[in-house]
Design goal:
Layout lengths: L2 E4 L2 E4 L4 E7 L9 E6 L6 E6 L6 E3 L7 E6 L4 E6 L8 E8 L11 E4 L3 E6 L1
Parallel strand pairs: 2-11
Antiparallel strand pairs: 1-3, 3-8, 4-5, 4-9, 5-6, 7-8, 9-10, 9-11
Amino acid sequence: VQLQASGGGLVQAGGSLRLSCAASGRTFSTYAIGWFRQPPGKEREFVGTVNWSGTSTYLADSVKGRFTVSRDNAENTVYLQMNNLKPDDTAVYYCARARGNYGRSGRTEYDYWGQGTQVTVSS
């Protein structure tokens, strides 16, 4: 299983970005996918997750109302739409495959990780 996150960049506060997580493997659609981020000098933290079918999502309180997670199983891709970005959202963003078809917020719930993509929000 390989995951590849993309779509990061530099954006001004209040702007938007959409991250993509492209996955390999025939069983992609049977697993939840989560997004995490690691701000500079801090621990990696949970951002959001989408279940195997895309019908259920769970977001961290810090991003609720601004970020959404979705997936397109036909394209083996999961998206993180980020709106109204704030400087505190600056981080390296990672996607990861959950161990089951529903994901939670704990890092140990995920077994395969992609490389990160940098998001920088300027004030």
